[in-house]
Amino acid sequence: VLACVSRLEVSVASVQVSPVILDKIYTKETSKSSSGGKPTRRDTGSVSFFVKYRLPSDNEETSLCTRKLKGNYAEFNEKRSVPITFTSDTLEDWWNFKTEFKVYSRHLGQRVPLLIGEATLGMKYLLLHDRYTGGAPLSLPIYVANALFRELKLPQNTSEIVGNIHLSIQLAYRSTVKSRPGS
After folding, report:
1. How far is the first Cα of the chain from the last one, in angstroms, to the nearest whole number?
2. Could you report the per-residue pLDDT of 141-157, keeping only the tens digit for each?
3. How many CB atoms lie within 10 A of CB 49?
């Protein structure tokens, strides 16, 4: 069946961020604060959220960005489609590869984005279970980045899961399969 696959579609719908973490991101202290160094809540439009990931066949990361926020959901609704042909080498690469979905935030004027955390998807699970490759929604936990504790001055008892990434993966099949001559 994998021999008939022609495309891989990855759709990132949204990233859900813990309200506690989201509030800390918006009230992060700045050295140029007009309130004398006290945290102030920033405008929600002044923060961008990013998701970066790399598939087994990619040479560089795919980067998605949004400023659309509904509640504690950063809405991306982005789809990426890549051609794929499964060979024995491709299968081996997929079996051993884990796609890391890295989630970042960045305020306007901030040079380096803040890594919120990462969600991981072992590509072998896509090979083993059809239910993950039919376009059904997947929700992967986002595990906190170590630097986030330091940057946002989080209490040590903060949960290691800081949100979820909502995505779907679909394998598209060729519409016609050519048979070999003589078979």
Report:
1. 18
2. 999 998 898 888 888 88
3. 25
Contacts 24+ apart (CB under 8 A), 106-115: 106/47, 106/48, 106/50, 107/28, 107/30, 107/42, 107/46, 107/47, 108/46, 108/47, 108/48, 113/50, 114/25, 114/147, 114/148, 114/151, 115/145, 115/147, 115/148
Of the candidates 131, 78, 125, 123, the one whose C-alpha atom is nearest the C-alpha of residue 99 is: 123
Residue 128 has pLDDT above 80, yes or no: yes
pTM value is 0.84
